[in-house]
């Protein structure tokens, strides 16, 4: 029988396996908040090489927040892996702040309960409580395990070990792969008549729905994880501390038309000109903690920056118009994971 002292010696002498234990009878609550603020920091226009004065359009500052709270309970297992999971979404909401307009984001998944069942390499998804979302892709992409498992090494590692993170792992850990499923596009409300007060809050979507908040859905993510400690104290829980660094760089596609011309689109006059080049750059880093004895994620905190640069050009009747713009922003992700008492099944 191993004593605590023996286990400590083994941990010091060798490696440790960091993996969520799905054999434990417990409910796991995941509280995730993702925010992204952006503003236009450069905007210039030229006609035939000469600068053109642009009307004051403000700084195009926007802030988006997504807040998701889910509770997972493993109901069946295939060895050490979950094969059937009940996932209750306590909250799926957020807001989109455009200065004088605040749009409250809604989701058909708010207050719903899913039953996820392994079906070979796929996952069968059934809505067991609440209204069934019926938009395209609503029940696609859901996975049985916790999203933060994607940041774990998948093998025994020692202190100071490092491992790479790929595009799929980062997208899943950040929750970006489910963003369009949880926040579908919704019809923008008609504000052209009636109350002309301008300010206030509205419920619903905003043109393209929850979207990615300026982060491309197919962003070419790369990253690195570095195990820096095996004895980090987080609220009295002994944890492994893993430093995370991620980045993505690439070209942005031509935006699709539609969704109305709200304030966010009006601040982008270059959208009327053919796209010449548009690039994005995202950098973020932070810490991920994992409970060693509890064998589950505890917390992820990431902060970073993003930048998009767009150049457009059009020639008509021997006159050339060029517009250059730069948008910069900050992103922040905080995920807290905790255990909850299991609900008693009704007899």
Tag the structure with descriptive keywords.
14-stranded mixed β-sheet, mainly beta, 347 residues, two-stranded antiparallel sheet
Can you walk me through this structure?
Helices cover 7% and strands 51% of the residues. With 347 residues, it is mainly β. The strands form two sheets. Strands 2, 3, 4, 5, 6, 7, 8, 10, 11, 12, 13, 14, 15 and 16 form a 14-stranded mixed β-sheet that branches. The longest helix has 10 residues, at 4-13. The protein starts with a helix and ends in a 7-residue tail after the last strand. It contains four helices and 16 strands.
Largest sheet report? 14 strands, mixed
Q: How much is the average pLDDT?
A: 85
Quick one: overall form? globular
> Could you say which structural class the secondary elements and strand pairing correspond to?
mainly beta
| Beta strand % | over 45%
Terminal CA distance reads 39 Å
Low-confidence stretches: 5-13, 190-198, 202-211, 257-271
Care to count the β-strands?
16
Helix content: under 10%
Count of discrete alpha- or pi-helical segments spanning 4 or more residues? 4
Q: What is the helix/strand order?
A: HEEEEEEEEEEHHEEEHEEE
User: Measured on Cα atoms, how large is the radius of gyration?
Assistant: 23 Å
In short:
This protein has 347 residues and is mostly beta strands. Helix content is 7%, strand content 51%. The protein has helices at residues 4-13, 167-174, 179-182, 263-266; strands spanning 16-17, 27-47, 50-51, 62-78, 81-97, 102-105, 113-119, 122-129, 156-157, 162-165, 201-203, 221-234, 237-251, 275-291, 296-316, 319-340.
């Amino acid at each position: 029988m191993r004593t605590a002292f023996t286990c400590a010696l083994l941990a010091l002498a060798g490696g440790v396996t960091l993996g969520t234990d799905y054999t434990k009878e417990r409910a796991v609550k995941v509280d995730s908040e993702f925010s992204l603020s952006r503003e236009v920091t450069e905007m210039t226009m030229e006609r035939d090489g000469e600068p053109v004065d642009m009307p004051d359009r403000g700084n195009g500052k926007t802030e988006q927040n997504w807040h998701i709270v889910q509770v997972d309970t493993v109901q069946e297992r295939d060895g050490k892996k979950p094969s059937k999971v009940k996932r209750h979404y306590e909250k799926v909401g957020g807001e989109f702040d455009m200065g004088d307009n605040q749009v409250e984001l809604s989701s058909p998944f708010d207050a719903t309960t899913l039953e996820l069942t392994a079906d070979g390499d796929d996952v069968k998804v059934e809505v067991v409580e609440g209204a069934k979302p019926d938009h395209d892709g609503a029940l696609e992409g859901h996975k049985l395990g916790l999203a933060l498992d994607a940041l774990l090494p998948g093998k025994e590692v020692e202190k100071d070990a490092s491992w790479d993170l790929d595009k799929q792992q980062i997208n899943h850990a950040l929750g970006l792969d489910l963003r369009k499923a949880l926040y579908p596009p919704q019809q923008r409300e008609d504000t052209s008549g009636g109350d002309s007060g301008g300010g206030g809050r509205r419920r619903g979507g905003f043109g393209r729905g929850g979207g990615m908040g300026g982060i491309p859905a197919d962003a070419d993510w790369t990253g690195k994880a570095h195990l820096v400690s095996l004895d980090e104290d987080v609220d009295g829980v002994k944890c492994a501390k893993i430093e995370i660094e991620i980045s993505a760089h690439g070209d942005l596609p031509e935006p699709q038309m539609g969704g109305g011309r709200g304030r966010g689109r009006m601040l982008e006059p270059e959208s009327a000109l053919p796209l010449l080049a548009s690039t994005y750059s995202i950098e973020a880093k932070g810490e991920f903690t994992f409970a060693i004895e509890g064998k589950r994620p505890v917390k992820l905190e990431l902060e970073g920056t993003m930048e998009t640069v767009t150049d457009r050009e059009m020639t008509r009747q021997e006159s050339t118009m060029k517009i250059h713009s730069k948008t910069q922003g900050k992103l922040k992700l905080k995920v807290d994971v905790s255990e909850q008492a299991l609900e008693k099944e009704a007899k």
